[in-house]
Amino acid sequence: MRSRVLALTLVGCGTWLGATGVSLAAEPEARGSGATAATAAPAGRGAVVVAIGSGVEAAAKPLAREIYRDEALRPGLDDRAARVLAGEAVAADAPAKERELAEVRSALTTNDDAPSRRLLASLGAEQKAEIVVAVSMAGDRPIARVLRVGTARYESLELGPTIERSEAGEIRYTWPGAAATLRKLVVVPQAQAPAPIAPKQTSTNAPPKPEEPTRKPFYKSAWFWGPLGAIVAAGAAVLITSKVTEDSTGMVRLKGQVAP
To answer: pTM for this structure?
Structure first.
């Protein structure tokens, strides 16, 4: 069933894959942030956080909040889409669009093969994002990888959270330094000059148009801000830091740490 959903989704997304610069032809061998930045123009704006697999929602949501607080990283998606992509379950009576989005997300895998990457890129293009931050579990620890939508390739970057535990065993994930790191991978929109003020209309023949209800931006919702208090053991002082490392393959890893 998962392979069937994957195939159907790729066919359905074929129309706009070409428009976003995601080619279905043979791919170049060059990899890394330098190669991807040079071979494709941004397909959208900001970063969208996508949870891949089960048991990752608790880690994906705080990363989404951390990223979406930064205006340069904030994509143009609504509250419900942000929740679904971060792993939140969808009700059986939810709108068809939300259920379809959840179905596509459930078909995603962490594989680095072309079909898996292109499906993830197509999901990012649909949300008009420049990069996709894919959160998954590596054993018992969450990791986040960055896929560039325009090329459907992963950057040589891996993010890791800080894990805080309470005496009751409750776990809270934070992602120190994630937003600052990802900001370097996106095109920050330049401030535009204000538009000239149009002259007022003096005619009163046409009645004013009724105001259309606007959907509440996701970054103003209670879900977006989430719990802000840290979960720490009673009487213990916790220092949250981040550490950047690079292995022999050139993979850069940003790891959260908890130090007494």
So the answer is: 0.65
